[in-house]
Fold these 2 entries.
Entry 1:
Amino acid sequence: MSVKVSRRKIRLGERADGSPYDLHILQYKGSAGPSVFIGVGIHGDELTGVASVWRLIDYLKGKDIRGTITIMPAMNPEGLNYNIRSIPEAGVDLNRLYPGKASGYIAERITAKVWEIARKHDIIIDLHTIGKGIPFVLLDPVTGDLKKRNDELAKATRITVLDELSSEDYEQQNLGASLGGVASKEGIPSLTIELGGSKDIDWDSVDAGYLAVRNVLNYIGVVDGTVTSVKSSVVIRESGYRREDVWSEKGGLIQYVVDLGQKVKAGQTLAKVRDLYGEVLEEVRMPEDGYMVAENSGHVTHTGGPIATIAIRMKK
Ligand SMILES: [Zn+2]
């Protein structure tokens, strides 16, 4: 067996002080087999996946590899430097800027370079964080063989699997320009994995992120090993659910009254919005039966502010 491991930087350009603007890339090339792209941190303040990659690097030491594993641990390096979602010079969401533009502004150059690398792979995995929540796979809306492949890869992760938002909300939020969105258009199987954390490393989710990726590598045979269940985080085992967002009408501070991963009935209170003196202004309720998935990590809200990510049944 011989596995070639390379670590390099791809120069995007330079900063004002002349220091390099680089993208980091770690690649394992083994014998013939499938290629997998693992991207982390296109949102610069989503750090948990970086620690999941640390564990994956440990796991891959000395392992025989059939195929190629490409890891980009900081797809938005300047966002990471400042622990911000975007880049300092713009408030733009880089995960709505694919396929990017190689000669465009810096955010477009980043996504163009990431996409140029990612699209050469058989499978694309994009690691994100959702805030205070349970880890889950988010599946882009695709059909036919691509859907079958995405579904089986998602199942192999052994974490919660949810379909994306309704098609209207998917359009409204421009998710077709996410990495999963462009991968889907190109017919490349892809998994978006949301882990816990926001501007910090959620260590409970690190293990889930690591195992989810490792399980995919084991499942497709790039690395020998058995798919292992995830015990460090809550896993929703029912299938047929999709992601939904819940918003508040009132502004105030949020008190959550359900647990992450808890099954919640339609009409049951998810959270109370209280004013500065503790008076309850609003009880935000579950719109239909489902599960509590993630809290708004800030715990403050305004009219139309995010309260929770939930899972509800997909319409047949
Ligand atoms: Zn993200």
Entry 2:
Amino acid sequence: MIRKFLFLVGLILVSCSSDDTGEVPDGDTPEQTGLTEFQLEFIEEYHYVTFNLSPTSFGGNLNEKWSEEVKIFLDGGADASYQESVENQISTLNDYMTDGTTLEVVNALSEANVHLYLGPAVDIENLWPDMFSFLSQGSFQGYALYSSSSSNINFGRIWVNNDGMPIFTHELGHVLGFGHASDARCGQNSSFMCSSLSNGFSTFDTGMIKTLYHPDITVGKTFQQLRPVIEELLLSESIAL
Ligand SMILES: [Zn+2]
């Protein structure tokens, strides 16, 4: 079995230097598609985030997501209070997973397919030397790596250096298949996938999670293959923004 590892950059404390200002899709106007400008902007951002077009995120060329229950083990300095915060946050996320994929915290590493470690970076030098080697390339609060098989994400590792929910949610977002948001979506009403962390989810964030984890969105597809499916989800208001 070939298992590819996909590397996703965690939080970089310097601002992103992306000069991608977001192109207007060719030939897609409200008149041609029946979609609103807002919905067309959403599709553009969905492409940017889920196909990892940001220069600071790395992932597959084809659509990827989980097709099994996401079971997270909390390691390191994670205590009962941290677990409660995580469970609250994933409860919110579970409401957005429209294909029945669920997330839960499990009490044993052997049951988990996502391993989270909370603690200072030096703690993962021996645990995850590959991840540790990336941490020297910037100033990070967290980092996530995941692997997939045939575009199905099946294993993730998350390191966070603090017990805040913004960094947890951002790194979990990477493991769920989301890259960094475009600069246009970072500022006011920021996306949870901005390198500068945000609290909560923007309208586009909830729409993107509901879309990626919608049963009509299948893995291993190009954006061009998915675009008509996403347009139909919006036109039918299966995905409401
Ligand atoms: Zn990140």
